[in-house]
Amino acid sequence: MLRRQFLAVRNALTADDVEGAGRALAERALELPELARGHTVAAYVSVGSEPGTLALLEALRARGVRVLLPALLPDNDLDWGEYTGPDSLARVQHGGRMALFEPTGTRLGPDAVTAADVVLLPGLAVDARGMRLGRGGGSYDRVLARLERAGARPRLVVLLYDTEVVARVPAEAHDQPVHAVVTPTGVRRFPH
Q1: I need a labelling partner for 25 at 20 to 30 A (CA). Which of 2, 54, 162, 180 fits?
Q2: Which uninterrupted H or E stretch holds 186?
Q3: What DSSP string describes 74-139?
Q4: Is residue 166 classed as helix, strand or coil in its secondary structure?
Q5: Region label for 152, one of left (φ > 0), alpha (ψ between -120 and 50) or beta (otherwise)
Q6: Contact criterion met (CB below 8 Å) for 133 and 124
């Protein structure tokens, strides 16, 4: 129910709204010291009415940051490949679900994410505790569990619209809080 509400608001946005928010989001995100210091950033390519990430991906690449992007596996886990520019992306249709833009280069394996200094996460909302509401597919829950098992401690940052920072979202025992949220108007950090 809650996911549907957030998606309905997003789906009402125009292409200009999404593009403008993506540019502003990139500017705010690039102010993060974590991204300035990061050598490897695991990110994702936004789809549909998600806050746009392409401007941010390009800016990171221009800074010499190694950008890893996910490729969805049949079991909903994520493999990773390197982003080397817009030409390194292909639109991939996953059954009856949405099409995703995935890296076309060499697959680096699901554990490649453990080398990231920062992991940029998609989501639908984040609350005052830093708990993230995802789309419900579990792909990023697996990523976060993999990071924990490997003892990797990247900074976890969710990219959202301003209206998606809320008082509280449902959380389960395995959910992990993020360190920060970036919206088109700013950054909010969560102590933990």
Answers
A1: 2
A2: strand 186-189
A3: TTS-EEEEEE-SGGGEEEEE-TTS-EEEEE-S----GGGGGG-SEEEE--SEE-TT--EE--SS-H
A4: coil
A5: beta
A6: yes
Supply the pLDDT for residue 121.
96
Q: How far apart are CA 97 and CA 95, in angstroms?
A: 5
Question: Does the predicted model carry a pTM greater than 0.90?
Answer: yes
State how far the Cα of 173 lies from the Cα of 163, in Å rounded to an integer.
25
CB 29 within 8 A of CB 159: yes
DSSP one-letter code for 51:
P
**What is residue 192's three-state secondary structure?**
coil
pLDDT the model gives residue 150: 96
The per-residue pLDDT for range 28-70, each reduced to its tens digit, is 999 999 988 889 999 999 988 999 999 999 999 999 999 999 9
Residues 181 and 38: their CA atoms lie apart, in Å, by 17
Q: Name 1's Cβ contacts closer than 8 Å, sequence gap at least 6.
A: none
- Give, in degrees to the nearest 5, the angle at Cα 112 between 58 and 145: 110
pLDDT of residue 62: 94
Neighbouring C-beta atoms of residue 65, cutoff 10 Å: 20
Backbone angles phi, psi at 143, to 5 degrees: -60, -45
d(CA 43, CA 12): 25
- Give per-residue pLDDT as tens, 93-103: 987 767 899 99
